[in-house]
Amino acid sequence: MDNLCAVPGVRVGHAGDPEGLTGCTAVIFDVPAVSGADIARGAATGTRESALLDPLNRIEEVHGILLTGGSAFGLAAADGVMRYLEERGRGVDVGVARVPIVPAAVIFDLGIGSPRARPDAGMGYEAASSARRYDFAQGNAGAGTGATVGKMLGPERAMKGGVGSAAVRLEDGLVVAALVVVNALGDVREPGSGEILAGPRREDGSLADSVELLARAAGRIRAAENTTIGVVATNARLTKAQANKVAQMAQSGVSRAVYPAHTTYDGDAIFAAATGEVEALTDVVGARAAQVVQESILRAVRAAESAAGIPGLASKG
């Protein structure tokens, strides 16, 4: 498998509303995973339980991670993932119960489908229940169902974003993989050539350079409506501080594929999770994490199909 499930013990499940154009994606760990996060790159982040991942705080491991649409409303879907895990005896033993730790991050997709369609606990439970080690759907699936990119000329001139995933395996047994939901303000470019793959559409259908548009587009940009969120998983043995460093380094993959990245209108957030099977240098894991995040972003837009009048690359021709 060339996706997040390439990491042993990691399962992925999608659930969504294809009419309301929203959804969520649950990442389930068969054993608790040491986790960290980098959520400070954008200025419009929506998360849940992310403070627990600070190295200064006590909780070391997580049982699942949720990526979801629905803006802040969609964070309710994490309740369903927690219920799924609790039913299976998973969570931190607090004496009177087991409390599953499920960090979550959201994208804003209320403007493309129905603003009343939002992931809830039921949808989160469905995503967790469907989690398998398999070649799951990319593009318009799960949390990528309502994702869009390239909104410098307004949401009506955007292109379809989505969810993408990639993995790399090294000869020493190290596996590093990512799953990313791409809902960025900026455009997505081919790193080698600089070609804009998905971005703001001019009236003639050609794609504009988001960086060039930025100064004069400020009046039409709406805050808190854009973000790139994702999960990096590895079978490396990492401490909580090292996992946070890997998440930080993984954000470089966003800036290699999205132009501009980490703006004041984006809520970019990356979680990192380590299952602890092989020894590896933190910098090696982080460097590979940036690579698979970059590739995941490219796959997300290449697999995205048109929806609600917003064109996607997979529907062209």
Automatic annotation (TrEMBL):
Belongs to the peptidase S58 family. InterPro entries: ArgJ-like_dom_sf, Peptidase_S58_DmpA. It comes from the Bacteria. This is Peptidase S58 family protein. GO terms for molecular function: aminopeptidase activity.
